[in-house]
Amino acid sequence: MSNATTLIHSIPVDPLTGAVSVPIYQTSTFVQEAPGVNRGYDYARSGNPTRATLENLVATLENGKIGAAFGSGLAAIDAVVKLLQSGDEILAVDDIYGGAFRLFTQVYEKFGIKVNYVDCTNVNNVLDAITPATKLIWLETPTNPTLKISDIRAIANLAKAHSCWLCVDNTFATPALQQPLSLGADIVIHSATKYLGGHSDLIAGLVVTKEKELGEKIRFYQNATGAILGPFDSWLVIRGIETLHLRIKQHCQSAQQIAEFLETHPAVDKVYYPGLSSHHNHKIAKAQSKGFGGIVTFSLKNDTAQAAIQLATSTQYFKLAESLGGIKSLISHPATMTHKTIPEQKRIAAGVSNSLLRLSVGLEVAEDLIADLKQALDGILLSTQNKNFDTLTCA
Ligand SMILES: *Cc1c(COP(=O)(O)O)cnc(C)c1O
Question: Which of 135, 237, 363, 382 could form a disulfide bond with 88, CB atoms 3.0-4.6 angstroms apart?
Fold first, then answer.
């Protein structure tokens, strides 16, 4: 399901009052008629009607059986890792979200879970890296910040053949563009903080499973470890999802225009956007998703952190900030922000060069955004001519 009509009508009208907006059940407990006799809810960690509406909605959106809402994207990822046992291995995409990398290596390795990081853009690399202990394959596609694309269906087939689960972090694409469960994945997770919430006003995470049994395990960990999403934030995510299709359509359209503009500007070196025919896996992106998303990444010919920082601080509409997926356009400099803790050589080898900049294209008028980038890029050309930059890196 990824059609706006069915989405809008799968958000129920309140059966009690007819309210068209989902009520916020701001309560911790529910009165019982007799011990164990209740109307489906007994304590709000185990279940809350507002959260349940969001959980059912995202399960429908992702074409899964069970949804579970968490206090952050990382709490959602954490619940999935809890399916594993000591001795199990995770095969993870090499340019995984930094927070997931930290969770895997600094929290779970000490409990005996090993993680292999693999370039998943080539399916053969995945096949080669699977071991008898591999229990979970962890994919992000597109990845952050260089928007690498992996073939979900091919990797799902490998996962099935080797009896492991495939989990796809679908934060960048959203179900409006890509439904990993329909392509064979077992689990989808989201940082709903990004496009699903859509307004940069909350932190939330979601897990959806293809099968009921696996979903019930996730629900067990959700209740047993308690990292639930509260009713008000659940309501905000529902409200965000109501306009998901419309927002994503505009994000994609503007991002494509901006990526094409960047390719023509003399200060720009490389542009990374799955919607460009120059993208390494453009064909796979086109085959498995309905659009290419709102994130555009590029590097400068003047490959210094100084030049990148000048650019990132001379845009008017693109605000310098981490995160993505909101209505306001954002710009970030991974080398000194999200990827600062990675040693320089390793960072550059992973494609995060000194001048790499990531845009989260918002909902402003595309022409205004292009004019904003143009004046900032022209400024870089001028500063380069005047030799304002030395060869300082990001040490
Ligand atoms: C932000 C993000 C996360 C983590 O989500 P939080 O809501 O910040 O905990 C996970 N994966 C991706 C791809 C993200 O962008």
Answer: 135
